[in-house]
Amino acid sequence: MVRSCEQGIPAWVFVGTLLFHSVTVRGAALKQEVALDNGATVLNHSMSLVQRMETLLTMGNGSDVTLRVQTINTDEVKVIQAHSLVLSLQSDVFEELLLTRNNSAVVLRETPDCAAVFDKFIRYLYCGDISVRLDQAISLHKLASKYHVWGLQQGLTQYMTLHLSSDSPTGHVVGWYNYALQIGDMALRDSCLQYLSWNLSSVLQSGEWGSISEDLLLSLLQRSDLILQTELELYEALEAWISQNQPVSATVESALRAVRYGMIPPQHLFRLQKQSALMLKYYESIRDLLYLAFQFHSASPIQLAKYFDVNCSIFTPRNYLSSSWGSPWVINNPTRDDRSFSFQTQLGPSGHDSSKRVTWNALFSPRWLPLSARSTYTELGAMQPTRTDGGRPRIIVTPATSSPDFAGVSFQKTVIVMAKQQGKVVVRHVYNFHQSTEEAGDFLVDADLQRRASEYLIDSSLYLHIVIKPLYHTLLVARK
């Protein structure tokens, strides 16, 4: 039996005493907390216990098991002196390994990335805390999953969800997305996909764009909630990705057919036809889409809607940040009072509508009650918002004028809320509401704008970007 180097007592007694001390201290603390009203004082020595446990691992005192961590396909072996009681309490996988071992050594085979962080993993079992870098998250998550340390696994999933915007030399979100897909973690997968979709412009400019898989690329291209400057920006980034990755022709054709050419102004389409090597090579694969796009730009949308299904994706805008489709709006001290703002957008993406403008009025109120609760009126009888502490933030976006040109067009309004995470400005939330609705019903419903450190504020200001998405509708169907 292995004995403690310092006290000469059995290892299991040595470790067990520490763990019993932990339970005793915590139990006493709970009993004292119940009796706090009687003047009791909580004594918490858990930090000193953690330090003693860390020293126990570092010095190997009382060790009764040797972990031999072999790196797969190498001769590298990492030796860790550990304690079977601690390992068994933290992991049922370790408990089974220790019950079936033939001697004091347990051989573990790990991939190079997992072997590199195995010391950190074991330390967590002793101390309950761990320092994590972006490039270590997947490796530690693999170990936590393999050895059934569920608390650590959940903590790492949460860490990855909260650190999608962190800066890293080569990017990490795409790698985390692929890993989540591999292990079937749909929540993490969806978080990564949403981050890539909402921050696509910055992703397109990063080195991470080239590492996107074919499946992820095609999945992104199908989405209407992508936030980027223009559709032309997306086409040029796609051209760069294809040049770097050299996929098979079928993948190239699928990707090119997912581009919304109707959202690219005709002068840029003409240029691409002459100057884009990719378009020249695959022109026959997308000729029908280009022809339809040119028809879309040249004809009245009402006339086009009589003969074509204008509800398809080629005529559906994404969330474009260019000035043609909306405007940024920075609201300083958003809890102070109501604010209003006016801006103009192009009537529609069609070249036929390129010279027509729609003026929009936006109104923001930090504490605005719904219509049913409003009761104050001006001298002229116009209803005014009643602002009380019980209200919540509201935003209303309405057209300033009406026009016959609006026939066959409806407008989806999108309000993008920016935030600063890990020092980077990213999209925090996206709210969508349609022409028939003046406001987003759930706008900032969970936001505490009174708190200066609110995750919805940047330097005490609310950073918004309002996007107007004109959608054409089929009016008539021509008889064949």
From TrEMBL:
Domain BTB: 63-134
Species, as recorded: Seriola dumerili (Greater amberjack)
Record key words, sorted: Signal
Listed InterPro entries: BACK, BTB-POZ/Galectin-3-binding, BTB/POZ_dom, SKP1/BTB/POZ_sf, TRAF_BTBD17
Name under which the protein is recorded: BTB domain containing 17
Signal peptide: 1-27
Source organism superkingdom: Eukaryota
SUPFAM superfamilies the record matches: POZ domain
Keyword Signal tagged: yes
